[in-house]
Amino acid sequence: MKTLLRYSFILAACACLLVGCVDQFLDEKPSKSTTVVIETGEHLNALLNSYTTYYLENSPWLINGSDDEECSTAWYDITGSNKCEGYAPQSLCYATWNTDLIPGLTDNTWKAEYLKIFYANAILENADKVSGLADSERENVKREARFIRAYSMWYLAQIYCLPYVSGNESRQGLVLKSTTQFDESLKRATLKETYDFIEADLAEALKIDTPLTQNASTGRWKNHRANKAAVNGFAARYYLYRNDYANALKYADAALSAHNLLVDYNTEMRYMSSPVIVTINGRTETINFPYTYEGSANNVNNYMFEWKELMYFRMAYDSNWWYMPSQSLLSLYDKQYDLRYKYHIIPNYSYNNTIDAELPAYVFFWKDRIPSGPTTAEMLLIKAECEARTGNVSAAMTTVNKLRAARIDKSAPASVVNLTASGKEEAVRQILEERRREMPFARRLMDVRRLNTNDESFDDVGDITKTFYAFDLNNINKSSTKTYTLGKNASNLACPIPETEIVASEGVIVQNIY
């Protein structure tokens, strides 16, 4: 960790990367050709505009560890790790929650998020020193930096800490970094101290009232920067995971008041104009992908920034390039009418990897990215869940059905489009299933944690089990199978911290207790 912070400090103190002025950012590619010392407001805005610094969320723990991800001997027997990195031993460690082997693996999540926090701290330390900012602009830059810090701290807490519920207040939290100084403590705070830190930053970020706007000529949304919808959307998410349904509902409503656009899959989704044609064992096979799969970097960036539901530009990232949907996830979709199944579930994706079998994938942007920042869809789901949990079942079903009207084929009977429920528990279950259909992989393991530890029992996911071969980092033993378990209240709900960070801190950072 000290190594990371020393490198980051030198980078920020000596130079910052300018990626183009504020107004031109979304129309120009970032450039590393110009470096300057941080002296002006333009420099701080350039650092905030550098979306490539902040937008990827790459946690193999979250992607591989949920029950949305297929982990089966049947798939492995077809693919092997030579054609499917999801079945390489390193990925399997995360898929089976192996707290013995994970600490020694290469996982850049901790480092990447703390680097974002470092940049936020560098902005905060320079905001009152630079020239060229009006007082209101200066305050907004500081609030935006605190939003970035709160967002990354919360994300890290969902991965490396146990859920923040009654009884866990004194459990291990995160390293709290509020400066760029080397001598700031690397000792882990408690969970309560960690969440107090996040909530203080969030309170400042919520003062941001900048609207989310669109570039009229390019169609790109300026959601790479903090805005009113983004901060309220994150607040709604934050309070939902704190089981504070009144505040979650309040901020979801505020986010939707600021931005409520939905992509109508009936009229605004489509396949790529030309399907992918591959040759497998002498025959040709056709693979239809959604247009958002288009392969060039420019297209992917355009499509991500044009996705009008996205309030804040953050993307979950799978370095294996294959989100492998489990049977339990697939079973939730209406395969005839649900347009999310039509466009995002590619039933013969494996042909694209020259595997002669029809194995599916979940695809959104290219092979590797799915929206993880707050969206209009997520806000409707939070609003509906909170309405249901507080007893307003009728309103909850009206809210969730607004989303379904944009996702279900317009030819479907009304009884298919509209979910119904006779009481609170049925309504919550229906909405949670819709939530899983809408936001697989990116939110699922976080949801498992909160649902298993909230005050209700009817919504518990319970233990998650996966049956796979015995393995270590050098070998997968096909002669022996084993059942792996993520327990409802187990200590392995928190991912181990990479050993490299513990060593670099000279042992000040303490590993999770298992």
What structural class do the secondary elements suggest? mainly alpha
**Biggest beta-sheet profile:** 3 strands, mixed
Strand tally: 13
* Beta-strand fraction estimate: 5-15%
Percent in helix: 40-55%
State the low-pLDDT regions, or none: 1-34
Q: N-to-C terminal Cα separation, in Å? A: 22 Å
Q: What's the multimeric state?
A: single chain
- Overall 3D form: globular
How would you write the strand order of the largest sheet?
3-8-11
Overall average pLDDT: 92
Rg (CA only): 23 Å
H/I helix tally? 20
Describe the protein in words.
This protein is mostly helical and 514 residues long. It contains 20 helices and 13 strands. A 3-stranded mixed sheet has the order 3-8-11. A two-stranded antiparallel ribbon has the order 1-2. The chain has a two-stranded antiparallel sheet with strand order 4-5. A hairpin with a 4-residue loop joins β12 (464-471) and β13 (476-486). α8 packs antiparallel against α9, α10 (228-241) runs antiparallel to α11 (245-258) and α15 packs antiparallel against α16 (393-405). It is globular, with a radius of gyration of 23 Å. The chain starts with a helix and ends in a 10-residue tail after the last helix.
